[in-house]
Amino acid sequence: MKYAFYLGCTIPARAVNYEVSTRKIAPKLGLELVDLPDFDCCGFPVKSVDSFTTLVMAAKNIAVAEEKGLDICTLCNGCVVTLVEANHELKHKEELKDKVNKELAKLGREFKGTIEVKHLARILYEDVGVEKIKKTVKYT
User: Residue 78 falls within a domain, yes or no?
Assistant: First the structure.
């Protein structure tokens, strides 16, 4: 299972331990986490000031993963909410998607709505599965 590994701006700044532990367990659980250098902040910090800019920022990151054909794995709760909401909204509101894509075109990007965004906890539960996790855990 291969995912675009989205750290956002909070994990590298305030929760490096979460990133390190995720990178350590991922291969043992059959997860390949791919770093994409074009990822930026998800937009959550500006949401209360400018919700459209937040949508554009989130859509840009989703478009980066779409270009690689990878679903996104994120660790940050703020990022997952922002990216999932943007992904859902833009998949279901064509006019808004067109408006966002007009902005993304300036960056040479396009939101298509072809991937999913998932928090690591959801991936562990739904994609890896509890049984595989149980079999992988080593007791010392």
Answer: yes
